[in-house]
Amino acid sequence: MEALKGIKVLDFTHVQSGPTCTQLLAWFGADVIKVERPGSGDPTRGQLVDVPGADSLYFTMLNHNKRSLTLNTKNETGKRILQRLIKKCDVLVENFAPGAMERMGFGWEQIQKLNPRMIMASVKGFGPGPYEDCKVYENVAQCAGGAASTTGFLDGPPTVTGAQIGDSGTGLHLALGIVTALYQRHETGIGQRVLAAMQDGVINLCRVKLRDQQRLAAGPLTEYSQYGEGIDFGDTTPRAGNDSGGGQPGRILKCKGWETDPNAYTYFITQAAAWPKICKAINKPAWVDDPNYATPNARLTRLNEVFDAIESWTMTKTKFEVMQICNPLDIPVGPILSMKEISEEESLRETGTIVEIDHPERGKYLSVGCPVKLSASPAEVKRSPLLGEHTKEILRSELGYTDNELDEILESGAVG
Length: 416
Prior knowledge:
- There is one protein chain.
- The protein is of the alpha/beta class.
- It has 2 domains: 8-205 and 344-412, 3-Layer(aba) Sandwich (Rossmann fold); 207-331, 2-Layer Sandwich (formyl-coa transferase, domain 3), CATH 3.30.1540.10.
- The chain has helices at 17-27, 57-60, 76-88, 100-104, 108-114, 138-144, 167-188, 198-205, 207-215, 225-228, 275-281, 296-299, 303-314, 319-326, 339-344, 346-351, 391-397, 403-412; strands at 8-12, 31-36, 66-70, 91-94, 119-124, 193-197, 250-254, 265-269, 333-335, 354-359, 363-368.
- The strands form 3 sheets. Strands 3-2-1-4-5-6 form a 6-stranded parallel beta sheet, sandwiched between helices. Strands 7-8-9 form a 3-stranded antiparallel beta sheet, with helices on one face. It has a two-stranded antiparallel sheet with strand order 10-11.
- β10 and β11 (363-368) form a beta hairpin.
- α1 (17-27) crosses α7 (167-188), α6 crosses α8 and α7 (167-188) crosses α8 (198-205).
- It starts with 7 loop residues before the first strand and ends with a helix.
């Protein structure tokens, strides 16, 4: 059984943040009807195209398991169709610019009148406040949410991360909000609004940096490398390079082959409990009892020396050999995996984290699968829809239009 079987989602989202949310709901079994503009559809269908004449990977990898309905919501017939869909569905998800739904005539008040049980979920750039009307994209969200100011090296500029924490991260937050609202509706019978602001989502993922902002009042952040290097702290959480954020010193270190392989590195954490085993592995047994190295506090001012010694050892091993040696010793390490290595990792194929999909226009391609695994309802990843592929099917099966009525709808220009 699919966990969300029977839940119908009206998907007005586009690009990444909203589609991430609705794809997750679709993976869990919801019937997601993606409403698209006739003739063009979601703009990502034609962005970053790698196979001429086919939907881009940008689109396909964010819209699995959905049905596509083309609908002109500016057309009077199109508006009537949308009204019927709203009455029929459980959830409406949108990530338009602020005020767009209201200008369409389908703001929250109108939707409540049509369907009091409807849950209306929105992704916006900012929550209520001075910036709520601003348009936001991924990197803007990272910058406004504290990620960029705390990412990068101390002597360099703010840096955005490769992970899409603003778009996809907010989509994941919104999906949780929708499922929570559905559960509450089960008790109350009434829908509600769900808002996930991209700035809020990034701040949530940066909570350890807000933690450190407050800790500055009590003195320097001793686990940061700059403390051991004698560099003064300012009045805001600094950029900390590849330092570990959990209080245990950690860095990215070179491994065998680093001269020619840009990803021949490992992340190595000098966890206090593993210190004796670390010393033995890198052939520094005297450091176990040496008062200059034996305790975490003693090592804080010597972290450069400590990690230089560890790196001298890791440079004699491949990143996978480092993992094979350290894991049995409970020394926390992790290889820096390239996207090529991830795409070829068989274990990720076996768990469904990486899946191969066959598409009628572009052939086979790789995509991420559902990141959350449910034992009683495993997700099956199905290809993304072609533009308008399910328009007639939805009008017939969901709204009950006859063939004659369908002909009239097509002639009206309400659908494409």
